[in-house]
Design brief:
GO biological process, one term: ribosome biogenesis
Distance between the termini: 87 Å
Number of strands: 28
Order of helices and strands: EEEEEEEEEEEEEEEEEEEEEEEEEEEEHH
Strand order of the largest sheet: 3-2-1-28
Keywords: Kinase, Repeat, Ribosome biogenesis, Transferase, WD repeat
CATH topology: Methylamine Dehydrogenase, Chain H
Helix content: under 10%
Largest sheet: 4 strands, antiparallel
Shape: globular
Number of helices: 2
CATH superfamily: YVTN repeat-like/Quinoprotein amine dehydrogenase
Radius of gyration: 25 Å
Number of domains: 1
GO molecular function: kinase activity
Protein name: p21-activated protein kinase-interacting protein 1-like
CATH architecture: 7 Propeller
WD repeats: 43-82, 83-116, 127-168, 209-249, 250-282
Structural class: mainly beta
CATH class: Mainly Beta
Length: 371
């Protein structure tokens, strides 16, 4: 059954370029459900190419070859500040919400991953286990597990409760992996390397392999069993990951596809020449929007999109057998840990003093009661 078309919520779309520039757009629908894409700003905050960008509501973070992370408040149209903890190119950024706060994860050519607290932009932790530049990372929806990949083909699974590596291995193949993503349910992850995308279970078992003719540059999960890929073949392909022999749909671009994003049943694709196309994944045919930014003079490197306002909080779903489990440690932010801390605080406190002093006090008390 095909769902009826719905109007997308107002959405921020941000593009990064080779010249260090950022372009911000607003995606919205009018009363006739026709989509409009409006340019809000365009300027060059980075000294070199922008490598990555991340959005959470109206909070934007961008990272580049100049080794800086820049933070912006799009609702107020101001730059919040610059983060300078890394000593190498910033390769990936991701906003994460744990039980009670917003965090920003970043990885860099300095072989480290930084965890930033968004309330005051303090670097809470710098994770180090790789011996080569970290090219990408993916934090699980539970905010308790993360994956990271490096140029030396190393893959690390992190226990974020302890801030330590729970598992590491070398990926197979002649080329180092270029990107990693969790599925929406978090029961499997995708790993892109050269011309193929491999999907793995959380146990590390290979579930399927999506083979392409040319190199894959980007990927985006649409739902738990549908994946979009783009790259050098100038085509966006839609795959059913359960039957990965051939793609179920293909959308063409004029240039190589550099980045993909998915919001409200709309798939956004951007090519290296500044071309942006917006497709309704429920329907086949022409894109709902086909435009070009800066008349083709902006060479795009990345794209990110998010609703202008965070959706309302949803109740936490109980863990099932398909979710990632961290069995060796309980998250300090979990309800179980809070309950344990409350129980411990209700235990009676021991009298002050050393053990021998307490024994003497106890004997004196017993003698006094006998008298």
């Amino acid at each position: 059954m095909v769902r009826q078309s719905t109007s997308p919520s107002p959405t921020n779309v941000v593009l990064g370029g080779y010249d260090g520039s950022l372009a911000g757009l607003s995606l919205a629908a009018d009363d006739t459900t026709a989509l409009t894409l409006t340019l809000n700003f365009a300027y060059a905050p980075h000294a070199n190419a922008v490598r990555c960008a991340a959005l959470r509501s109206s909070l934007l973070a961008s990272g580049g070859v100049d080794e800086t992370i820049r933070i912006y408040d799009l609702a107020k149209a101001v730059e919040v500040g610059t983060l300078l903890h890394h000593d190498g190119t910033i390769n990936a950024l991701q906003f994460v919400r744990d039980s009670h706060r917003n965090l920003l994860f970043s990885c860099s050519d300095d072989a480290s991953i930084c965890v930033w607290r968004c309330s005051d932009w303090t670097c809470m932790k710098q994770l180090r286990a790789h011996h080569a530049p970290v090219v990408d990372m993916a934090v699980h929806q539970s905010a308790r597990v993360a994956l990271s990949i490096a140029k030396d083909r190393a893959l690390c699974m992190w226990n974020l409760s302890k801030g330590k590596v729970a598992f590491s291995c070398k990926t197979k193949g002649t080329k180092a992996p270029s990107s990693v993503h969790w599925s929406p349910k978090g029961d499997e992850y995708s790993l892109t390397s050269g011309t193929q995308v491999t999907l793995f279970s959380v146990e590390g078992r290979s579930n399927s392999v999506l083979k392409h003719q040319y190199s894959v540059l980007c990927e985006q999960f649409i739902d738990n069993h549908t994946l979009a890929t783009g790259g050098e073949e100038k085509t966006v392909r839609i795959w059913d990951t359960r039957q990965a022999t051939t793609s179920v749909a293909a959308f063409d671009h004029d240039k190589r596809v550099r980045s993909l994003a998915f919001v409200d049943d709309l798939l956004l694709s951007a090519d290296s020449n500044g071309g942006i196309k917006i497709w309704d994944v429920r329907m086949r045919g022409r894109p709902r929007i086909d435009t070009c930014i800066a008349d083709g003079h902006l060479r795009l490197t990345c794209m990110t999109a998010a609703h202008k306002r965070d959706p309302p909080a949803t109740p936490k779903i109980p863990e099932d057998e398909n979710e990632v489990q961290v069995s060796d440690d309980e998250s300090p932010l979990s309800p179980e840990a809070d309950k344990k801390a409350t129980t411990q605080s209700q235990k009676p406190k021991l009298p002050e003093g050393t053990a021998s002093q307490r024994k003497r006090k106890k004997r004196k008390l017993m003698k006094a009661t006998q008298k």
